[in-house]
Design brief:
By secondary structure, the protein is of the alpha/beta class. 44% of the residues lie in helices and 12% in strands. Bound molecules: phosphoenolpyruvate and magnesium ion. Phosphoenolpyruvate binds next to strand 2 and helix 9.
Length: 325
């Protein structure tokens, strides 16, 4: 380790060629902001807004949600605060929504699919987010998108939320960016089309790896097959970044891969604009980005994309990262 974490917090994440990568924090509640700020996070790249819904008997109301979102938006200051609409279902069931038990919850009524079928829940959340946006630099992010139609439907709910807030005379910001998570293979494959419908992409590798490889992200029996270095995953990510940039929108990543220091050279070379991770990972990812110039990282990316096996790619990256230590 070259630096203490406390020193790294004040440095920016730039390569030796001066290419900047924004490093943001993944959080589940306003309380997580203390650690995020201490580690030098440039805002929040993923606020998992379902956490305030868990461990209770009913959904938090608009005021409760507004208070949580406002607290985080204010702590982000000038930086962007990306609030993901609730990602309930899958591994995060909610008994009070009375969703039928499913054989395959990860392929079932989850995330945006619940939001679009439960307008009362979705509009309440959107109203709380739009109100919080009056206090900071807030963006809305939709989870588990597979089609442009879902983005259009969500946008109609955003408009409806604005109409209701106007009627109720509540202060809010109308111009809030709307982005999507790229965490299904479908979204990655049609990224070019989706890019014209939204303001940013954030790649969710936890689910993207699970759905691309057909490997349950939580099942220890298949965990040796679960790797974000699988060539299929790397090619999807590379394509998503290119698709987003062709359409002039920023592309970030907020899955666990973004906090993997071995992945940092590849992701930087692919051109990811923002990496969002759990706060403790920020200093080490930053340190790796600062260690190389763009050409070194481009070369290791080109080499990685020729390899056929996730383990070989990982070994290549271990050697690469260590060589400069
Ligand atoms: C992801 O899928 O990578 C992601 C960030 O979302 P979550 O882990 O909350 O499913
Ligand atoms: Mg996910």
């Amino acid at each position: 380790r070259k630096y203490q974490d406390s020193q790294v917090a004040t440095l920016v994440a730039v390569t030796k060629s001066n290419t900047k990568v924004q490093l943001a924090a993944n959080i589940g509640s306003p309380a997580d902001m203390t650690a995020a700020i201490k580690q030098g996070a440039e805002g929040v790249g993923l606020f998992r807004s379902e956490f305030p819904f868990l461990g209770r008997d009913a959904s938090p109301n608009e005021e409760e949600q507004f208070a949580a979102y406002k607290a985080v938006a204010e702590q982000c200051g000038q930086h962007l605060c990306v609030i993901r609409t609730m990602d309930i279902g899958g591994d995060k069931p909610l008994h009070y929504l009375n969703i039928n038990k499913e054989e395959n919850p990860f392929l079932g009524l989850r995330a945006i699919r619940i939001s679009l079928t439960r307008p009362e829940l979705f509009i309440t959340q959107l109203k709380a987010i739009l109100r919080a946006a009056a206090y900071g630099n807030v963006a809305i992010m939709l989870p588990m998108i597979i089609s442009a139609a879902e983005i259009a439907a969500a946008r109609r709910f955003v408009n409806q939320a604005q109409v209701e807030l106007t009627k109720e005379g509540k202060a809010f910001r109308a111009a809030v960016p709307l982005g999507i998570m790229i965490e299904t293979p479908a979204a990655a494959v049609i990224a070019r089309e989706l890019a014209t419908e939204c303001d940013f992409f954030s790649i969710g590798t936890n689910d993207l790896v699970q759905y691309t490889l057909a490997v349950d992200r939580g099942n220890p029996a298949v965990s040796s097959l679960y790797s974000h270095f699988h060539p299929a995953v790397l090619r999807l990510i590379d394509g998503v970044v290119k698709a987003g940039h062709e359409h002039k929108i920023w592309v970030g990543m907020c899955g666990e891969m973004a906090g993997d220091l071995l992945a940092a050279p590849l992701l930087t070379a692919m051109g990811l604009d923002k990496l969002s991770m759990n706060a403790p990972a920020i200093p080490r990812v930053k340190e790796v980005i600062r260690r190389f110039d763009d050409e070194q990282m481009r070369q290791v990316l080109v080499k990685a994309l020729t390899l056929k096996d996730a383990n070989d790619i990982r070994s290549l990256l271990i050697d690469f990262v260590q060589q400069a230590e």
